[in-house]
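protein under study:
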Amino acid sequence: MSKKDILTPIGITFGFIVIMLAILSSGGTEGAVSFIDVSSILIVIGGLIASMLIAFKMEQLKLIFKLFKATSLQNSKQLPELIALFSRLAERARREGILALENDLDGIDDPFIRKGLLLVVDGVEPEVINDILEAEIMAMEERHAKSRSLFEKAAEYAPSWGMIGTLIGLVLMLNQLSDPSTLGPSMAVALLTTLYGTVLANLVFTPMANKLEGKTEEEAFYKQIIIEGIIGVQSGQNPRILEEKLNAFLSNEDQEKQKEIQTSNIIGESINEA
């Protein structure tokens, strides 16, 4: 089960707090009020929504709330536990045969691992298994890229609508130069729309798109290790050799954790034998 990633809401909140503190430290409360302009908000938010409705299908736009949620979830998959799983599967396959792996399928929640093991049990060639699973990774990356483009396009459109608001404000200001009282509001629209669009792009949409891209890379890396493990189990590799091969994917910190898991397993086996 995925854990909450509090860094995303903390980062966004901290960014807005820093901006507000900078405004308050320079202009006080009255200065902060001058940074709120309904016309500028309508231009940026309304224009952004209009552009998104034109650029994407309704099915894609419905995903945006899931994407917001995804940026606040942390991947709970652990590589040391995955490697330990394949070590056990390899040992059982060598001891009892490939068909014995079918009994372990019910205890495996990951559908990607289950699919790979089912192909192994069905006697599919290693090259074919690799091609099937690699194709699934590519399809996953393509789906994620299409979903992530919602934030990437929003990051492009927001500053553009800010610039449109700036042009509107300048036109209004130039048309009313004879009335000095209108210069301030017109200039506010001209500058604040650019500010709103830039803040949305650089504090919300672009960081979220980058986080989703990082999550996709992590998942693809995780699945690549699964493919290596499945092929190793099918080929009848020695569990220790397979484990050492998969450990090459781990960082130093994860390797230490893997050693702890191995020690725990050895102690558990000793207790069971006793």
Summary: The first helix runs from residue 7 to 33. Residues 49 and 154 are 9 Å apart (CA to CA). The chain has two domains: 1-36, 37-64+77-273.
